[in-house]
User: Fold these one by one.
Assistant:
Number 1:
Amino acid sequence: MKKVLKLLIIVLVLSFSLPASTAFADPPTSAPKDLRGLWIASVVNIDYPSKPTTDSETLKNEAIKALDFAKDTGLNAIFLQVRPASDSLYKSKYFPWSKYLTGKQGLAPDGDFDPLEFWVEEAHLRGLQLHAWINPYRVTKKTASDAKDDLSSLAPSNPARLNPGWVVKHSDGNYYYNPGLPEVRKLIVDGVDEIVQNYDIDGIHFDDYFYPDRDFNDKAAFLKYGKNFINIDDWRRSNVNTLIETISKSIKASGKNIRFGISPFGIWANKKTNPLGSDTRGLESYYDHYADTRKWVKEHTIDYIAPQLYWNIGYYLADYSKLLDWWKNTVKGTGVDLYIGQASFCSGSSNQSSPWYGTSEIEKQLSLNAKTPEVKGSIFFNYQAFLDKPGVAAVIKSIYEKRDGLTTKTPITVASPASNISVSLDKYYIDGSSDPDKPLYLNGQLVENRSPKGYFGVLVPLVNEANLLTFSQEGSFTTRVIYRQSANAPEKMSSANIPASSAFPQSKEYRSPGEKITLSCQAPIGSNVSVKLGGKVYNMKAMTNTPPGNGLYATTYKYEYTVPDYSGNPRNVDLGAPVYSMIYKGITKTRTAKANIGVIMKNSPFFAKVTSNIANTYNSTTTSDGAAYELYKGMVDHVTAIKDDFIRLSSGQWVNKNSVTTYMSSSTLLPAITSATYKTGAKWDDIELRIPSPVAAIADFDGVSLKLNVSTSSKADLPEVPGDALFSAVNVEANKQNTKYTFSLNEGQAIEGYYIEKTTNGIILHIKRPVKALEGTMPLSGLSIMVDPGHGGSETG
């Protein structure tokens, strides 16, 4: 499944408070009518098995644990990935056993164990459907730990190795079956027929992996088989259509009650590209994956469609609510069921500025689904995400139990605030009671401050506008909405005008395309105010419409402006200073802002160079929470925004303007990483990156993995991890502006600290090994220990 990049935007939260429900005594009055599915992925051991093994008992125990979890969470369907990459999690005469199952492709589990057979039987014992999830075209899934990526790494019996002419090596380093070959289509159909005939499954399920993208090397096949097509794009779509139609007919011909469904990428086509498409601006499965899912729905070739709507409500490129509406209209009257692929893996973010902060976004999406009759259920990605975020699973469980009319034993209560309220505070203390024997979550995060009897108290930071706060526990949840309003009351004015100090911006503001900037100024309450920027005029909204008394009072007028994009070479575009206009009782005034607003296009050759010896970076344009990282003199990074006294770098970190100098360059790229080495020592492990000139780099450790983010691209191979290293594996993600190394800590290992050293040849990440005290010694002897008792003033110790 594909995870979509999360955009940090402010989402206006719906104002509602849901009644509580918790551990339930009464059984449901009837079985749920909606499908409640869970994707369980086997590729690269995302979900099952947690790691490869031939031990059948381990495989059985992990399956039972997952099925019990699904049943307990209120789900009723499992979508198990049984063919991750030209291999299988079942006995097949066409495909070898999966390396993700046993560790070696072609190696069978112990004791003649058949995982799919076991999953089907155990799922049905629990009243769960079992859909066999297949990736039809993928042959390999290369990861950083794979020693080889050629066909010789496959099992000798693998159809791709036996028939190398059937596969295409793609630019992503992986192999794919060529959808344009009749032999390939026959192999896939035969593989599906094998499952249909041999297993008591409830469905055959494909996800969004069809053609990997438009850059696919199949011209020879097109010349041979595509003579009746004007262009290769229509031929590719026809190949996929033929496969889907053939499989559909084959399943129906079996006479079994087996459903056939597809879970495509959430956007079929954008309206700008195709008038039948959705009001979106993202990747298009019709043109990029050659999957005409709309056609399959309209012609009822499939039984259900489960688009992956992995975006939040209000996301400017792909709004969940707009896509839900498009898919609703697409399935209407077709007889094809619509299930929504839900991004439960995004939910439960601890970042308060993220639209996925807490659980409010997934709650709103499920509520919107419930109000849409065409939506017949949801499928959640993925099992491991639920295990990692039990608070999210608890909220989803409680939503379903509430729908099923189950009654509560011990509901969560919130004493303060007793109801939804409005405040001007930046923090609010919430308290209440809960079951002390069960974990309690606030917006998906564990609440640790509880008494032995279950009483809790939490100091919650508040953002402007609405804050939706959900407490959940074992299926029970209750919600409070706290609106934070500005503490500034309207000020009296001596004359009708736009004060110069109120006209935004007062200093230069540059942002990336698609970001939002709030244009604002002050003017008398009751005025008509507009702003002109970039040659266009926008009407502004008053924050207060009623003056507090007689006379002339000022209020703030705002307009949320979306930064435009431009075509052509990456560059900066100056939009000029906003010009504000006011009309109040026949009086007209204008005011030009003190500074300009501009656009920093993606990959613009706009750079910041650190000029101070050490430059602190921050997570936002406030320093109240302290510095996040350090950069060193001479380091360079792309600039993606200018706001107030801060510069935003490509890493997303903000740095004070006084610590850097900005400049335009003739090149859009920084020098690439040319080599990466990992060295171990008695006290330190060192990871050295050779880079021709200094670039910005930050490191972060979460207790499990160490992430090194370097603001440049990479030409280097992955560093070889020595056997005695602190870390077991390394993964790398790279684009034109950034390279991120992720080092996974060895089980049972720990580190005592780390720092980045800037060298003449690049950087070195030093990682301190733990000091091992000899038995009977006093390891802290001779050291000074400092205790911080608090910050004083209003800050408690």
Note: The longest helix spans residues 232-253.
Number 2:
Amino acid sequence: MRRDEVDSELAFHVEMTARELEASGMDRAEARLEAERRLGDMAEMRRRLKRLAVQRDRSRRRAMRCEELGQDVRQALGQLGRSPGFAVLAIATLALGIGSTTGMFSVVNAVILRSLPYADADRLVEVHEVWQGVSGGNVSAGNFVDGRELTNSFSAMGAGHQVNLSLVEGDAAERVLAWAVTHDWFEVFGVRPALGRTFTAAEDSPGADGVVVLSHAFWSERFGADARIVGREIRLGGRPRTVIGVMPAGFDPFAWGDRAWVPVAFTPERRAMHDEHYLIAVGRLAAGGTLADARLDLDRAGAILRERYPQDNAERTLMARPLSELVVGATARARLLVLMGAVTLVLLIACGNVANLLLARGASRAREMAVRGAIGASRGRIVRQLVTESGVLALVAASLGAALASAGIGLFARYAPPGIPRLDEAGLDATALLFALGAATITTILAGTVPALRASRISAAAAMREGPRGASTAAPRDRMRTLLIGGEVALAFTLLVGAGLLIRSALAMERIDPGFDLDGIMTARVTFPPGAYADGEATRQSFIRIADELDARPGIRAAAVSQAPMGPGGNSNGLVPEGRPLEAASAIDSRLRVVTSGYFETLGVRIVAGRPFDESDAAGGNLTMIVSETLARRAWPGEDPIGRRVICCEGSPDDPRWKTVVGVAADVRSDGPAVEPRPEFYLPITQAPVQAFDWMDRTMTLVVRPAVGEPAGAVPIMRDVLGDIDPGVPLHSISSMTGALLRVTATARFNFQLLTALGITGLLLAVGGIYGVVAFFVGLRRYEIGVRIALGATGGDVVRLMMRQGFVAVLGGIVVGVAASLASSRVLGGWLVGVEPTDPLTYSATAALMLLVGAAAAFVPARRATRVEPTESLSVV
């Protein structure tokens, strides 16, 4: 009834009631008011009764739905119990897909999605320098100090750098990975110590008493979690330091395994230096401030610094980014997201397989569904029953998948390459379980809805008429199963192409000459403490003595000392070749390596022009250098570099310290075979600027090639030589050069191994799907096959007929897979070495493999079709 009709009805009843009251002697106005009151009470009562009726109806319907759901679940469990083979296969397939996806999500969530464990972590930023358009450079002490004073977008700013310190107790010494930081470092992160306190500004100044703050892990492991540690004096970094605090568990800003923090204590000279870029700077945005505001603020500060210090800051500015980007790193983020995409493909393949199983099962239950419809079950009721069955499958699979995910996370963490931050935080937490539940829900929708809708369309008459002949005619029209198999093949093809490209890339990397002769070399690092070795000349002479004594020891064929012979070590410096303007714009960013004279011989690095270092490159003589082939091409294209001069590392335009090129060394792939050689140059340790040993944190690498035996046999000799020079300094980072190369290439190996495993998993699932679809068609077409055989068809004719059904899906899937791979494999471009994302050989080999396994999967059930007896088939007519 419309509202105007309701109003008219109420007005009529008010008028009639008023007349009755007026007839009883009541005044007309009072009768009117009383009538309106009575009818208002009655209307309110009717509304209340109506609301109660609606609520009772809703509760009744809700109870009915719950009862129906319970019936559906009980019936689903009964159906699965009557088909154990189907249940086991479907649950195992889904568990594999859900488990791998949930496990990978847990890793991605811990590393990428989860915020940093600090208050208002979204306000934490890293401040870095941009030079010649290259972002991410460390900050000089002068630029940090001046930049902090020139900006007002931060409530706190701190800076620091990693240092290697020796902890000495009695005759024992061990290396401690620490950070030298400004006093406001901890304020930026907003974390209070678990014990004691952090530095004051007075303690972060030259000449102050030594203090140290310990990490919770170091305090627990090294000092037995003794609460009395605060106030205790330890000898760290060559000087006594008082422990003033212990940070809470988990405080490790960059997930680099920090063990302790000491004050950086900039000297006035260091605060005024703008050309040594070694600090990592962090800041906390002021309340109400945004990252965009901070970037504008830093841009203004950078302009002022360029104007004040044009020689050091030309083409250099300051920039900020969220701290999480520094912690995770763009490379690790991209790799994990690609792997997440790969396991998602496995889940989709699993969904396709289960959908095919459900379609086959739906066809076998056609009469059951038709009878249920004939006796009154609605189509929606039938769909709900079948979707509930697939939902039960998915929930059971999700439970099993959660267990698989937990095991998978452990395996991933165990075999993952180094450099993935916060990986230890990955686990099967509430977020991961919700993800598994969500995956189960999506799986139910993807795998169960279409088969359920299809089964609900079958009419009773059609189902009752359906017999062997009807089944045979239905088979060719069952395109849904063919499309699902084609989709599985396409997804598996995409995974296998990615794995194939990475495998070919790994093989190409093995053929690349790193520029080193790695066999038989042992390396170890030495860090001299700043106290006793504050004088750079003392540090220099100690390293020269180590190299000389190692070289003289029996059993050592060759030995040298280098800043960093392998990996991304070495300081970055700008070189200006003679003839170019002495300004930052002319500089070539190059990697510096300070070495002893035996370096090139020990590592087998070829000198392709000129000479190696020798006794003539002594302190006080003409300054010399050796450049890499890449640097020579950049600095003097098409010209002979020998005898050319370069300014770098020291001096100024007013007082240039020219260095003469005496040799050209072959390029070495210091960052691994996957990375193109950078411009590099070498300085003899005898002529290196004394401040270089501060840049290097008084740390260098011993490189030893034993005369006989395993490389590890050189370690006792290295310890003995170092003990003769300074028994309080330990060796650390001991490794064979082959082991170092394996660590550098660990990420590439892990990527192709994991993607290969996922590709094989997808292939096996697709093979199972192909087998199932052909077997299904064979079962439906038994009558047709019997007739064909009775009419003279050979076994080969039957096999070809049946295999054609599977091959249509395989060929279609390969075509789609090629297109998908061409689009998706480009994301692997940065991972590949020596192979293009569109490599024809990889695509051809993958297609051939898919055809081969597809043929094998289709042949087995097709061959079984030849055993159909014509008399058996014809007898059912």
Note: The chain has 28 helices and 23 strands.
